[in-house]
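Let's practice the habit of predicting before peeking. Look at the sequence and jot down your guess about where helices and strands might fall. Then scroll down.
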Amino acid sequence: MAIIKKINNVSPKIAKNCFLADNSVVIGDVSLQKNCTIWFNAILRGDVNSIRIGYNVNIQDNAVVHGTYKKYATTIGNNVSIGHSAIIHGCTILDNVLIGMGSIIMDGAIIGSNTIIGAGTVITQNKKVPSNSIFVGNPARMLEENISSKKKEIIKKTASNYINYAKWYRLD
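Done guessing? Here is the structure:
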């Protein structure tokens, strides 16, 4: 069963139809909207600042979501996929975003809608990533702007796939 922990008199708020893997961790000032999936070893630590997560968000295995004490909260929009082992720290991610495996999104960064962040990409502090783009590398650079509708569909399909994957685990 997932670890869901109250801290500083604040308990996580988790929509009833979310899936939390057995060893996922959700602590403190965290809000999850409907159809979120939090996978194995993922940690959402709302101890020093808030974490607000929209609907249809998947946070994959070993990812960490945190903020900075009294300075940077974390906000994640709707239809967002956070890849395995990503670090999401004190930033804002708008709707329809795919964050690749092992990526790091730092304090104050803003990731625009309909955007892909490639695997292993580092988005530095306070960086503004425009909507409809692909960013890759360390430090990040734009690979593509005005992405196609086909790539936007991949972003949405990835988010919906994880809702379906969670159904497999609910059957056990």
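How did you do? The first helix runs from residue 149 to 170.
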